[in-house]
Amino acid sequence: MWQPRRRQLATIKAAVFALCLAPFAHLVWGIAYDALGANPVEAVTHSTGWWTLFLLCTTLSVTPLRRATGANWLLKLRRMLGLYAFFYAALHFVTYIWLDQWFDLAAIAGNVLQRPYITVGFTAFLLLVPLAATSTDAMQRRLGRSWQRVHRFIYLIAAFGVLHFWWLVKRDVTQPALFALVLAGLLGVRLYWYLRQRARIARPAIATSGG
To answer: N or C of the chain: less Cβ packing under 10 Å?
Structure first.
């Protein structure tokens, strides 16, 4: 399997960084030139939410791709993808509390408590914060084995994100359904790996007890 050299990997990282930043640049351009349509707040909200889900699923796809292809260097992109997912989630959240609700804390609290799609979206964002905060190498060393347990919350976060999107659109659920299918596939692969590992561990135990 092809493995990039240091300069090649740096170029790939720069390209991925630029690609991930492109949707934000497009939104800034749209705001600056009044090109986001009749409801720019809705356009920003939809775009940032969509890219959050896309990047969460992309982050979750790194490990299956690595295992399928042997391209271990893909792991070096995972942190960047995850942090960009948080970046767009933060923009999505700020757009809601600022441009949509104008920091009306009472209205925001009421929506979180009364509207299920906002409840799960808000919960997903809160769960994403500690993942971003502990994404550094230093935090990984400090947390040890606990780091992996904390970062497994990404599965729940992605599921909540899809559910948030599904309940939000109400009628045409084509896009959230596609995200749901992709996420189901990514989680299904991981469940298969887990069950296969459990079976592999159980075989020697059965053989020993039978002998």
So the answer is: C
